Amino acid sequence: MKVLVLSQFSDIIEHALPPGPAEVVFERDVRGFDLHASHARHRFELLVCFGYGRVLPVGDTAFSQVRFVNLHTSLLPYGRGLNPNLSAWLHDEPHGVTIHEMDGTYDTGRILFQRAMSIDPAGETLRSSYYRKILAAVELLSEKWDELIEGRYTPVGQRPGVGSLTTVGQLRAWAGVLAEYNDRPLPELLEAVAAGRVPRRPR
Questions:
Q1: How many Cα neighbours within 13 Å face the side chain of 139?
Q2: With a cut of 70, which residues of the chain have pLDDT below it?
Q3: Nearest Cα to Cα of residue 77 among 7, 130, 156
């Protein structure tokens, strides 16, 4: 089994993965990544993606023998798309991490593994809670690695009509919120949301 890990967090993942027979290759240059070129070079059978931010052409017949999975820092179907951590705090959504199949759209694929998280906003910032979820996602991947490699899981479809999605345009509209609150105590952000000074949905 040959596995390609495509992630800006490759160093963390590499140190967390358990030893095993799978040959794992890491693609750290997420900005310059070319799926066709990488597959021609490595001939991987499984691609594990984390923090890539773009939709891969997983339906291309050139990759019919490849399994594509993604790590996402939300409890899907909540927080699909970009910056799920911000989405969870703004919309009072449940926190968690998910490993799911990639199906060619933003985070709608069947769920393979998932873990809910309880995060007390006291003493946290947006940034610190974001890093907590990154570490939790990598921990989940490490714990489920053998099952993922061997295909020992039962995919579960996401419930239709449930959850949320943050688009590029919405995230741009929240740029000021991130700039102001990313490193401030989370209770200040939540107070601003409750008071209507920070909109739950950008205009």
A1: 12
A2: 202-203
A3: 156
